Amino acid sequence: MIILVSSKIDQGSIQASLGTPEYSYFFLLKEFLPALERLGTVRQVQGREEIEELTVQYRASGEHVILMSFSPPHQTPIGLPCPTVTVFAWEFDSLPATRPESGDEQAAYWYAQPENDWRQVLTHISGTITTSREAASLVAQINSDPGKVAAIPASVWDRYQGLCPEQGWSIGENNRQLEFTGTLLDSRKLRLNPEDCIEKPLTEYSRLNRALLRGWWHELHLPKQPHAAAAPQPEPLKKRPERQRLKLSGVVYTSVFCPRDGRKNWEHLLKTFCWAFRDRKDATLILKMVHHDIELYRTKLLTLLARLSPFKCRIVVVHGYLDEAEYQQLIRVTDYYVNCSSGEGLCIPLMEFLSSGKPAIAPLHTAMADYLDEDFAFIVDSSRQLSEWPHDPTGLHLTHSRRINTDSLRHAYCQSYDLNRNKERYKQMSRAAHQKMENFCSVETVSQQLMQFFQPILQGADNSAVQENHA
User: Fold this and answer.
1) Spatial distance between the Cα atoms of 274 and 315, rounded to a whole number of angstroms
2) Distance CA 74, CA 28 (A)
3) Torsion angle, CA of 255/301/387/402, rounded to 10 degrees?
4) pLDDT digits (tens, 9 = 90+) for 34-86
5) Same domain, 281 and 333
6) DSSP 3-state assignment of 334?
7) Which residues pair with 284 in a beta bridge?
8) Integer Cα distance of 341 and 435 in angstroms
9) What's the CA gap between 72 and 84, in Å, rounded?
10) Burial class of 400 by CB neighbour count within 10 A (0 to 12, 13 to 18, 19+)
11) For position 86, what pLDDT does the model report?
12) Is the domain of 23 the same as that of 163?
């Protein structure tokens, strides 16, 4: 079997796409590859023309061909000569399948495009794989054929299962260390002063002083001739990333996210942590930022930390690319993974930490409801709130996301910290997380689910080909 895979986001465009509604599909495709490679030959493709050419080529040699489009339905091609399956992650309680009455021209135009009504796509392709049962049930309401819809997670467990000790992890280990190349922001090395966040009005004297200084600087540096062009200035040299060494002790919490992704509620996560542990020196929160530009969030972060100060807990921001060994070391030095998002299509980092045997703090909603339970996670309460679909430019509130309960999050922080005095219970949670994820998202489990899903689709394609030959 030939499995063609495609995604709008590839290796060349992922950096510029971080934080956009579709950026996670690049990582989703990568995590599905080990399971797909067990079933057939996998080829990554770009563009309709290449798909059509390869389909003709492989079918001529007697191969089954199927396309897996790792994209939301409105970006999935239809009318191709091979069976097409869309694979998408969805974190809302309804699908873009309605066209509300609106006098707004932009809204009318957007909803007039057939691909933005997902029913037009989902009923014209061979099958749909979602990464959560909630999303699969929404698709099933559109497509009445149960064999064309499946909820299948990415195959994460095998890559991280070797990290977990047989007896489970211990909590609060001292002398842990993380080394990486990049930028490190540490609240204990920053001068955080709430007074700096207050904008102070300039006096008349200060304004005149600045005006005089500006005039003086212009006299010295600007050309004497009125119309002469200024000499080109060299671009400032970019500071090369430095090798960082982070030493850790006490109870360590970690969250991995793109700061542009508004669903992650990272400011909420940070503020609640500081309030829960403002008197605890041995509680540390590591924020691993997934973005190439630190200036995107640095000012917001430092302002927030200054407003929250004084606090005794430690906040650490890790900015920079972590290779596989460094990322695994980040997992090793962590005691809990934290998620307080308003919705998740899957949350691969959470699955990676759980597969490694690290317990979590997270809400039981959207895709996370498929694999979280109280045996290895501190559950955070949430409630429904109005929201809009992420790719809808009209901003109409036609769906719902989840609002995190702040007091429940604070309580989960405190409960998890208390396990530092009940180390055997923590080890039990560690082993339970590791075992649950093996059953949920190992390559073996996922490949079996994919094969069961493909069989009727390929059989249907064979029957169609026979009918065409007899016609």
Assistant:
1) 8
2) 17
3) 40
4) 999 999 999 999 889 999 999 999 999 999 999 999 999 999 999 999 999 99
5) yes
6) coil
7) 252, 314
8) 24
9) 13
10) middle
11) 96
12) no
Separation CA 25–CA 89 (nearest Å): 8
Query: pLDDT for 265-306, tens place per residue?
Result: 999 999 999 999 999 999 999 999 998 889 999 999 999 999
Res 310: pLDDT: 93
Does the model's pTM come out above 0.70? Answer: yes
Interstrand relation of 314-319 and 176-186 (parallel, antiparallel or unpaired) = antiparallel
β-strands 41-44, 176-186 pairing: unpaired
d(CA 19, CA 39): 32
| 89 and 151 Cβ atoms separated by less than 8 Å | no
Same domain, 453 and 399: no
Expressed as residue numbers, the domain containing 350 is 158-192+242-441
Q: 185: which 2 tokens?
A: 């922001």
CA 458-459-460 angle, to 5 degrees, is: 90
pLDDT in tens, 320-363: 989 999 999 999 999 999 999 999 999 999 999 999 999 999 99
Tokens 């971080």 belong to residue: 18
- One domain for residues 116 and 176: no
Q: In which residue ranges of the chain is pLDDT below 70? A: 11-22, 98-111, 144, 193-208, 211, 216-239, 461-471
Q: Where are the alpha helices (DSSP H) in 277-422?
A: 298-308, 324-332, 348-355, 406-418
The token pair that represents 46 in the structure block: 């770009």
How far CA 184 is from CA of 142, 294, 302, 332, in Å, comes to 48, 10, 13, 18
Q: Count structural domains, the chain.
A: 2
